[in-house]
Every structure is written in structure tokens, then in C-alpha cells.
Amino acid sequence: MANPPHGGILKDLIARDLPRQAELAAEAETLTAITLTERQLCDLELILNGGFSPLEGFMNEADYKGVVKENRLADGVLFSMPITLDLSQESIKELGLKAGQRVTLRDLRDDRNLAILTIDDIYKPDKVLEAREVFGADDEAHPAVKYLHRTAGDYYVGGKLEAINRLQHYDFVDLRYTPAELRLHFDKLGWTRVVAFQTRNPMHRAHRELTVRAARGHQANVLIHPVVGLTKPGDIDHFTRVRVYKALLPRYPNGMAVLGLLPLAMRMGGPREAIWHAIIRKNHGATHFIVGRDHAGPGKNSKGDDFYGPYDAQYAVEKYRDELGIEVVPFQMVTYLPDKDEYAPIDQIPKDTRTLNISGTELRSRLRSGREIPEWFSYPEVVKVLRESHPARAAQGFTLFLTGYTNSGKDQIARALQVTLNQQGGRSVSMLLGETVRSELSSELGFSKEDRSKNIARIAFVAGELTRSGTAVIAAPIAPFEKDREAAKEAIEKYGDFFLVHVATPLEYCEKTDKRGIYARARKGEIKGFTGVDDPYEAPVKPNLVVDCEKQTVRSIVHQIVLMLEGTGLLDRL
Ligand SMILES: Nc1ncnc2c1ncn2[C@@H]1O[C@H](COP(=O)(O)OS(=O)(=O)O)[C@@H](OP(=O)(O)O)[C@H]1O
Question: Of 137, 178, 353, 494, which one has the greatest count of Cβ atoms within 10 A?
């Protein structure tokens, strides 16, 4: 038998309300609807499937206050994380929401009706108090505190839910188990003792060692239960991670581990989060739960110190040990001992023993540069998956953004560079010249400040998408405004390197050598708002390179650019 759920009954609202589904679905069509955000959807899914038992809805004020102040719902049951439906004052007014009303909760991704909420109360939380009590500090360096102040609405809407539909997923559907499904699965396998492992990172040998040790120590099987909802910004995406977990699974002896995905929106709440995670795993039928070093840690606060001590989460679960009803298995960091070629928790090794480790940052850097990842650290099949998602520098896309006056030579540089890169091969090269973009993408735009912004934003969008897919992009618009160039940089840098080259050929020279006579027309007033004539050009504040076609040849400029690119590893051979 799997572990009894928190509060005694698994609140599987989908199963409970199935007999009334048609009736609820029809009613939902007639009600005011609230479209949920991604985070709210994650919470809703785990309320509806019983992952958050004993919750049957979003917290009303009494439950919320109890949880914030003393980790307890109004009826006294232990619960450590506020699960609330936040809305702005305007939305509440616009939708005319009030206590007693029934509203439909809708999925933002496909507009499906998921549940009906009967509003219990609408209340204004004390966000500063919530930040301090739940997350330990009112400091926006903490992602959940930042979310609380910047994203969450100022009011919470509490009330119980009736379920209409499960959320639709299209990825790894076979690995997404509800608590009821996982319980059934354990039953089928004959597992009575299950130790759950929470993770938001790829797993390597140390993690496999840790979980097998936990299993051995408690005569249990292993549930690898990674979070695939929302994790810490900057984490490796869940698609890559799930492929990693799948690759790792056969490394467990004799089918001793099962992989199940958890659609949780993490808060990175350290101690509070550890208690919450334990409750969630208990609801999924696990009997044991591993809490390691710095469990669900958010990193450093705005003063550069850790938000929580490395073992604070372990102390927190220990405090509620009797009430939790799931045995917490605390673990120190597991590290590699090269002299023995084995792994061990650091508290179990003699002083002065030589240890080796590769941090997440170091791993990412090795993936980026294509450097070796040793077999003592990870399995080749896991490394292969990671490498597929982290192409070496030589295979990464980038954008080179040339800015300058018309006839500054930016187009010649762009063309010459394109040919140079094509000669080297290994990557496709795309060019976005000012005039081409104007005729192909922005033909309806003029040259007002606003239209120029739109034009640059379009270039940035296309360059970003191409960069993401591994292309070398050469963009060469005038882009006279710093703000637009900054926005382009921000948009493109999400996907690859961005280099800003200021083609600072003096205006007089651009004008003097203009064979098309475009400056002459502008001077005569035939073209209005022409950059350099009667419209401003702001020189870039922090360009990667400044070149000048009056003083330099195109060939020498291209060489300078190639040297710059080479210095970042982007022109390495695969
Ligand atoms: N009013 C005005 N101001 C500036 N430029 C003008 C104007 N009218 C037409 N042109 C010609 O349009 C070409 C493309 O301009 P851009 O799209 O690069 O300008 S911007 O970046 O959106 O500001 C640009 O050519 P290139 O610089 O050769 O690309 C200009 O010659």
C-alpha cells in the first residue's frame, strides 16, 4: 500500500467530479471566465489531481493567513506554501467578481474550461509579510518575491473548485502521472516503500549514487520526480532534462527506479518549499523523501549572501517530522573520491580525502566550449543528450549588427563578411540589409522615430530566431537610436552572441562618396527626416567594435571582425 495522502483523503477532484462533468461543462459556458497564467495553471493542475491534498481550491483568507504565519491551514493541518489565485483590482472590477459567485477557470494555451471556482472571498494580501514569513526576506533578488511584487495581482480570490477537464499536455504525456496513477503504478509493481527524489537539474552519477544509497538505506525503490512546471529562471529546459532522466534510468539496477514528471511551479522557497515538496510526494504515494543540501535554494540575496543556510531545509522538515507522515531522508552533498573511484556523502569521508566535483556553471561552460566531460562525472549517454541541446561554439548562431549612416560602408562590409564566412563554411549565413528589410518586411513603415523602432524590432525578431537555429546573421540597418539597438541586443542575446559594430565613417565622407545621390535629394528637401541631414544619429555607447571606411579598407575591417569572432570561439572548427 502506498503512503496515505496528506490529511487522510486524496483530493482527486477530477475523479470526484467526473459523474457531473457534462453538467459542469455546460454551466462553465454560461459563467464569467478567468484565464489563468502559466503559474496559476501549474497550481490548478496539482489542486485538481490531488497533488496538493488536502486543498480543494485556492486558499481563502483564513487558510492563507494561517499558512503564511504558522505553516497551517485554518483547520490546523500542516501546509507550508500559500496557493493563491491572484488578480489585479482592474480585472476584479471588470469581471464584477464577488463572494458567492461561480466563475470558470480557463487555460490560456487553448481556451479550454478546466474548472469552476465558487468564490469564498476576495482579499488583499500583505505581500511584504508574505515575502518575509514565507521566503525569509522582502528582497526581489528572490525569484518568488520578485514574482509576488512585480507579476502577481494585488488581490487573492479564494474558493473551492469543481473539476471539468484535465490540462492537455503534448510532451512526455506517458510520463506525467497524477497521484492516483502513480499510486496505482506502485501497487502494480508491488512497491510499498518508495523514496522520492526531487530535481530541477540534469542528473549525473552523483545523483544516481545518492538515490541508490537512499534506497539501500531504507530498503525502498526510487521515484525520480523532476519538476517540469516552472523552475528557476535560467535552468536547463525540461525537454532536455527529461531526455537526460530517460537516458539515466537504465543505469539503475533491475528496474529499481521509476520516472514520473511533476507539473509544479517551484517558488525556490528553501525550508518552506522542502515541507511543501514532502507533502506533494506523500500525496503521490512516496513513503520517503530526499532532502539534500540547499534544497530548492534561490541563490544569493541582494547583498550577495545566501538566502538560506545549506541545511535549513533539512532542519525545517525535521521540525515537522511527526506531522509530515513521510520519512525525510536527509543527505549531505555526494562527491567523487578519485583515489577510490567511488562516490560518498561528504560527511562520511575522512578529513583530507581528495574529492572532485564539477559545478553546474562549470558544466555549462564545458558544454559551451565543447570541452571534455569526464566519465567519473556523468554517463556518456547523458552527456550526449546535453551536448545535443548545448551545441559547441562552432555550431552556435550569432548576430553581427552593423549600425551607421547610409553609405557609411556598412553594406559593403556586410557583403564582404558574408562571403568570408561562406568561404569558411560550417554555418548558414543570413544577411538583413537595411534596404532589403525595408522592401521585404517593413514596406508600410516610414522613417518616424516610432517606425524606425518597429523596423529594428522586426530585424531583432528575425535575427533572434535565426540565431537560435544556428545561423550567422549579419544585420546592417542605420538603427540610429540607442534604445532600439539596446532592445535588439536584449532580444537576440537570449539565443546567442550579439556584436554591435559601429561603422563610424564621418557623415561628410558618406555624403561626398554617395553615388546614388540620396544625400543630395535629402539636402534639397526631396526626402524628409533623413538620418544625418535632418534626423539625428546617436552614436552607440558601448559598441564591440568601431570602424571607419574613410580610414580603413573593407578588407581590413572584415579581418578585424573575423578576429573578434575568432576570439569568442565562434569560428572554431567542429
Ligand atoms: N528618411 C530617411 N532616413 C534614413 N534613411 C532613409 C530615409 N528614407 C529612405 N531611406 C533609405 O532607407 C534605407 C533603410 O533605412 P533603415 O531601415 O536602415 O533605417 S532605420 O534603421 O529604420 O532607421 C537606407 O539605406 P541604407 O542605409 O543604404 O540601408 C536609406 O537610404
Answer: 178
Residue 447 beta carbon below 6 angstroms from any ligand 1 atom? yes
Q: How far apart are CA 371 and CA 384, in angstroms?
A: 13
* SS3 category, 76: coil
Q: Is the CB of 409 under 6 A from ligand 1?
A: no
Which residue is it, cell 538505506?
217
How many whole angstroms from 280 Cα to the centroid of ligand 1?
58
Is ligand 1 within 6 A of the CB of residue 530?
Answer: yes
pLDDT confidence of residue 1: 65
> Cα(77)–Cα(441) distance, rounded to whole angstroms?
59
Parallel, antiparallel, or unpaired for β 257-259 and 545-547? Answer: unpaired
Average pLDDT estimate for 527-551: 98
Residues across the chain: 574
Residue 11 has pLDDT above 90, yes or no: yes
Q: What is the pLDDT of residues 470-520, one digit of tens each?
A: 999 999 999 999 999 999 999 999 999 999 999 999 999 999 999 999 999
Ligand 1 lined by 479 (C-beta under 6 Å)? yes
**Res 369 pLDDT > 80:** no
State whether the beta carbon of 145 lies less than 6 angstroms from ligand 1.
no
Q: Are 463 and 469 in contact (CB under 8 A)?
A: no
> Is 201 an active-site residue?
yes
Residue showing cell 528575425: 462
Model pLDDT, residue 574: 67
Q: Is 113 a catalytic residue?
A: no
Strand residues in 243-337 grouped as ranges (E): 257-259, 288-291, 327-330, 334-337
- Cα dist. 457→411, 452, 454, 470, 543 in Å? 19, 9, 5, 20, 18
- Out of 407, 433, 435, give the residue to mutate to test ligand 1, the one with the largest number of ligand atoms within 8 Å of its CB: 435
For residue 200, what is its C-alpha cell?
A: 530541477
State ipTM: 0.91
Which residues face 177 on adjacent strands? none
| 332: Cα within 13 Å, side-chain hemisphere | 9
Cell triple for residue 271? 525550508
| 200 tagged catalytic | yes
- 394 vs 396: CA distance, rounded Å: 6
Spatial neighbors of 515 by CB under 8 A, at least 6 apart, are none
Ligand 1 within 6 A of CB of 485: no
Residue among 401, 402, 406, 503 whose CB has most ligand 1 atoms within 8 A, to mutate: 406
- Measured by CA distance, the residue closest to atom 11 of ligand 1 is 435
Nearest CA to ligand 1 atom 18: 477
- Alpha carbon of 480 to ligand 1 centroid (Å): 10
pLDDT of residue 333: 85
Nearest-CA residue for atom 17 of ligand 1: 434
Q: Whole-model pTM?
A: 0.84
Using alpha carbons, select from 1, 14, 77 the residue that is nearest to residue 51: 14
Q: For the residues 340-357, what does the mean pLDDT come to?
A: 92
